[in-house]
């Protein structure tokens, strides 16, 4: 009898004590985890109430499911640690806090572990999983099970009593919680991680405002004589940027083709892009749809979730209306980020993903850029009389570069004893892939030069690469990426003012089409495109 009473009391006490103990530990974890993103002492009371209430209700739910107070406490705190570790890894790599939209990436991390786990820490992930397994096993065998000690009605009363305080705290906190500004670093500074989740989850989920897209995309140009339209080859280079201004020890000839094409280009320069280190689809949306972050609203963080169900005018749909055959090449699984659903909605008539490159050569873990150049050449040589618009999304330069074997001897960097080994390793690997992208652009320009039809080559970087050891050692670049628009015909017009934001590049490219068109039918294309061309030299 005494043993039964002691067991029942222990189970009850563990459940009751777990709530205040866990809440305090959770608040402390959040305060410690906010280092680098502001001072937790600056936050108002409402975010702390939201945090405490949310954690408490999660704890009560865990008790109801697991039937053990200590196990529920350890489980919820462990899950919070995983989220906060993900937040820290994301901040270090991408300069952005963990957002409520990012929870879906945990599933992506299982499906595409190489893209995610290295930034979280493979060793850390394995050790945390092992520790969690040992803890669960210990609690399951040592801690008494509540339903063995309490009736269902007593259990309901216990859970209701435990949930009352957290529910009141959450309700009071949400009433006074400030609205999200959609500037993640600012919101995290003022609200903290858990309250940010609530603020972003409550933000109005309205459709994308397409009225802010360029007029040339919203009102597609009228079809013209197809023989007068140039081929369009567009390359979105994975992690493509010019590192030479950032670090003067990088050889100039790493981008030899790029430099030559820039000298011959219609326009070139640097662009502000909506991503740092990853989140390529933000850059894709800015380019293809001409929409900046203000126009996207909440959808700026993962625009393809909305674009998979909302028709939005794009460069591809405008080109298709003008008579182009439209193709997108991306040597990675097509369902990643729902590209297989989004690209057809944006106006691409064909989408070739990793299945089309399954037997192609790789350089590192991903399909080599030279294979994309080969496929573009095949598409340009197709006997179809229509002009081609092809959008190439490369993958070769996707990190993490430290997972690839260190080069011996160095391919690009001169030996420097003052440079940390990890910096030399990742930089030399990155420069190897960057030079391959440069060679691909040179090959594409040569292919366009051989074509009888005029052709435009447009290339830009989606974001700067993740080079965390190098940035810690040498400082961070400014985050802009280079672009250029090059023609296979001698230039007869003055160079237009280059765009400064990636969302302006598609419009600049359409203007270049108008300048390159030799015979344009009267109508929208002639009026809208040619008026933007400068007078001949």
TrEMBL record:
All residue ranges annotated as the Sulfatase N-terminal domain in the record: 230-511
Ranges that cross the membrane: 52-83, 115-142, 154-174
Its membrane topology: Multi-pass membrane protein
Keyword vocabulary terms for this entry: Cell membrane, Membrane, Transmembrane, Transmembrane helix
Record's subcellular location: Cell membrane
Protein name, per record: Capsular biosynthesis protein
């Amino acid at each position: 009898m005494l043993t039964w009473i002691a067991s029942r009391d222990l189970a009850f006490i563990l459940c009751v004590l777990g709530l205040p103990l866990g809440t305090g530990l959770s608040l402390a974890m959040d305060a410690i985890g906010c280092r680098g993103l502001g001072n937790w002492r600056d936050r108002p009371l409402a975010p702390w109430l939201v945090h405490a209430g949310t954690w408490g209700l999660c704890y009560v739910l865990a008790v109801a499911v697991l039937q053990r107070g200590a196990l529920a406490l350890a489980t919820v705190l462990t899950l919070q640690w995983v989220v906060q570790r993900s937040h820290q890894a994301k901040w270090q790599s991408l300069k952005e806090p963990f957002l409520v939209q990012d929870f879906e990436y945990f599933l992506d991390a299982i499906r595409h572990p190489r893209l995610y786990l290295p930034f979280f820490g493979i060793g850390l992930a394995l050790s945390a999983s092992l520790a969690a397994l040992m803890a669960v096993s210990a609690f399951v065998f040592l801690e008494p099970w509540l339903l063995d000690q309490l009736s269902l009605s007593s259990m309901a009363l216990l859970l209701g009593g435990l949930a009352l305080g957290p529910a009141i705290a959450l309700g009071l906190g949400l009433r006074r919680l400030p609205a999200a500004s959609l500037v993640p670093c600012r919101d995290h500074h003022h609200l903290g991680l858990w309250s940010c989740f609530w603020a972003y989850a409550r933000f109005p989920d309205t459709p994308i405002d397409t009225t802010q897209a360029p007029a040339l995309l919203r009102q597609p140009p009228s079809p013209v004589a197809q023989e007068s339209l140039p081929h369009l080859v567009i390359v979105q280079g994975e992690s493509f940027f010019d590192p030479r201004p950032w670090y003067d020890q990088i050889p100039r000839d790493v981008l030899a083709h790029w430099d030559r094409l820039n000298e011959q280009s219609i326009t070139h320069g640097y662009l502000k892009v909506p991503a740092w280190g990853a989140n390529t689809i933000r850059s894709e949306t800015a380019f293809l749809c001409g929409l900046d972050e203000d126009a996207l609203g909440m959808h700026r963080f993962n625009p393809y979730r909305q674009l998979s169900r909302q028709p939005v005018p794009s460069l591809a749909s405008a080109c298709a209306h003008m008579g182009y055959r439209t193709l997108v090449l991306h040597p990675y699984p097509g369902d990643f980020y729902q590209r297989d659903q989004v690209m057809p909605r944006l106006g691409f008539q064909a989408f070739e993903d990793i299945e089309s490159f399954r037997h192609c050569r790789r350089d590192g873990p991903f399909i080599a850029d030279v294979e994309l150049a080969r496929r573009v050449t095949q598409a340009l040589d197709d006997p179809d009389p229509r002009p081609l618009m092809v959008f190439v999304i490369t993958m070769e330069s996707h990190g993490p570069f430290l997972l690839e074997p260190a080069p011996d001897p160095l391919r690009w960097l001169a030996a420097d004893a003052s440079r940390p080994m990890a910096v030399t390793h990742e930089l030399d690997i990155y420069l190897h892939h960057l030079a391959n992208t440069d060679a691909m652009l040179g090959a594409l320009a040569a292919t366009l030069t051989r074509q009888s039809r005029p052709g435009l080559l447009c290339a830009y970087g989606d974001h700067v690469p993740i080079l965390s050891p190098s940035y810690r050692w040498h400082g961070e670049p400014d985050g802009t990426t280079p672009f250029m628009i090059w023609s296979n015909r001698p230039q007869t017009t003055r160079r237009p003012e280059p765009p400064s934001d990636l969302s302006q590049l598609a419009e600049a490219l359409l203007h270049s089409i108008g300048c390159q068109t030799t015979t344009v039918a009267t109508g929208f294309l002639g009026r809208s495109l040619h008026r933007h061309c400068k007078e001949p030299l």
